[in-house]
Amino acid sequence: MWNDVRARHFRNFSKHSIFVLGAAGIFTLGATLPAFAHSPSAVKNRKLETCPTATFFNAKLSKNFTAPYNEQAALKSLLTSPVGKSILPNLWVNARQAKPCFAMSDTPIWGKVVSRIPADIVALEVSSDLGHVLVYTTGLPDYKMETPKLFSGFKPGNIYGVYKFSAEPKPDTRPVHEFGSKGAVGLFVNGVSIFNYSDTFSYQDKGAFAYNANVAEAAIVNSDIAHATPSNLPQFPKSRGIFHNHQMSNELLQQLRDPYWRGVREHSKVVGYAIDSYPIYGPLGYSSKDKSSGIKTLKSSYLQRSWLEMSKGGTGHRSSMPEWAVRNWDRSNDSSDKILNLFQKAKDEILYRDMGTGGPVQYAGEDAKLAAEIKFFNQSNKLKRDTQGYVYWEASVRGASGKNTLVRNYLLKASDLWGPDIGQEVLPVSFQIADQDKFLFKAVTGAFAEDHEFIAGYGDLDFFNGIESFVPEQGRATYHYVATFGADVSHRKRMSAASFPYFIGIQYKGVVDPLNATLDEKEKAKYLTDNRSRYKAVFDLGVTGKTDDGGLHSGSVIETWRKTLSGE
Asked: At residue 14, does pLDDT exceed 50?
């Protein structure tokens, strides 16, 4: 819910039907559409109020650019460079100093604050080799923001954001990549922050189940499933009210006129960039490296672990971790000593092993709930030990292709490490810390990140929620993330069908640039100062805010951001 604690929102929907062999036999998991506080399906029918001078970066804006890019020769060289072809034309900029765009809200509660802040991307610098770009943003869009009905006191502010995006992202070659946490995992093309799927807390702070923010915080977002981090709480002094989405903004899809929003079967547009520099596309694309697959809604390969439910043959308890959290996505991490979720606790602190080497799994302790869980799975001949002796049971999942996959569910070592029972009402930790009104939510399957299993090939996308597939604007196959939805483009309620993990998977595909990863503002300011000679400004809005009487604060955005971040 806030920056320093790395909050996120999400919601889940899956069109696929799958078959699972549980203790009660084979059963089908059908599509379900969870209920949420707001329905974004109405966004398509609501006319957005936007700033008329905001637009994509393009050559027609050249008179607003900084020398030498206000001259045609230099601008042509820029637009034909790697960064000019792959990133700049996708950015939504506030480039006209004579008619700058300011943020808007539908209520005075937010309006008094945001109406003084310039919207969208407000400055750009490119490296001397034209290989990467520095993006300067306030973090606010130019479309009118709806104030949530609850927690409206968490007002958006100017985040003084600076992000570095490379035209050639580097894949991470380590077995376990960097985890998608620590502030924004990416940036929409209009400069608004993208947060991941979690509100950063684990259930009862035990490190085993990360809250699904789109369930836990559903009561405090607007109809676009967006809100701001707290700007006035002493626990979060650096938050400054970060406006963000934990799933795809339908209003941005509308503003960009993305084909998924329009209901047209065409390739989606770039909607943002992850902090490892890989682009994030909208839901529609090819699943092949050429055009042979045809355009389709690209599907996530994560599915809900509904086999935990009593009606599906489970116990109804969140007593186990999914396989990816123990062995990694490619099942190559059996020797690791850490859990591979956001919290990365030691395995021996989290997982159960009875120290046996053969025969039935035994338990001789006094934890009655754990004893009953072990007895249940022993009776169905499910419990096994891995090479490290940790105990698991298997479920057999059959996808639409008919292929069966066995997935492991690793038992937690004590019942006080379990998540809430499926369907239990829970008070999110974020509400307790914020000391605000308390809202219980029902912990249905999908309410936590660890309620999901990754199965390679189940959908179109990989563990990182991306794919190397044909991209028409590039004329070739390139790797990119996808803002995932679980409904076909023809589905009437498709805009309500965002699906886990929404943007980025559990880990990033690529190497994250340190400038994007740090939450330390002075570190960012130092980078901007130390590397000044490496960059040339392409444009600088030259307006940093409004005065009390409605006049403009004129001045360099680039220099103002650097001074503000350094504490000057």
From this structure: no
Helix %, strand %, coil % of the chain (to 5)? 20, 25, 55
Q: CA nearest 422: which of 501, 308, 304?
A: 308
Residue 535, domain member (yes or no): no
* Structure letter (DSSP) for residue 517: H
Residue 12 lies in a domain: yes
Question: Range of 247's domain?
Answer: 1-48+143-519
What is the C-alpha to C-alpha distance for residues 212 and 12, in angstroms, rounded to an integer?
9
Tokens of 514: 């340190």
- Helix or strand (DSSP H, E) at 515: helix 514-517
Strands 92-93 and 55-56 turn out to be antiparallel
How many structural domains is the chain composed of? 1
Tell me which residue has tokens 């090939």: 457
What pLDDT band is residue 412 in, cutting at 50, 70 and 90? very high
What's the pLDDT band for 233 if we cut at 50, 70, 90? low
Mean pLDDT confidence for 201-219: 88
Contact 282, 260 (CB under 8 A): yes
Whether the pLDDT of residue 230 is over 70: the answer is: yes
Left if phi > 0, otherwise alpha if psi is -120 to 50, otherwise beta: which for 111? alpha
Whole-number Å distance between alpha carbons of 511 and 418:
33
DSSP secondary structure letters along 407-423: EEEEEBSSGGGSBPPTT
Q: How confident is the model at residue 351 (pLDDT cuts 50, 70, 90)?
A: very high
Q: Which of these, 165, 399, 397, 426, lies nearest to 270 by C-alpha position?
A: 165
Q: Respond yes or no on whether the N-terminal peptide bond of residue 108 is cis (omega within 30° of 0).
A: no
What angle do helix axes 557-566 and 521-530 make, rounded to 10 degrees?
Answer: 130
Nearest Cα residue to 321 out of 403, 206, 216:
206
The structure tokens listed for 540 are: 């600088």
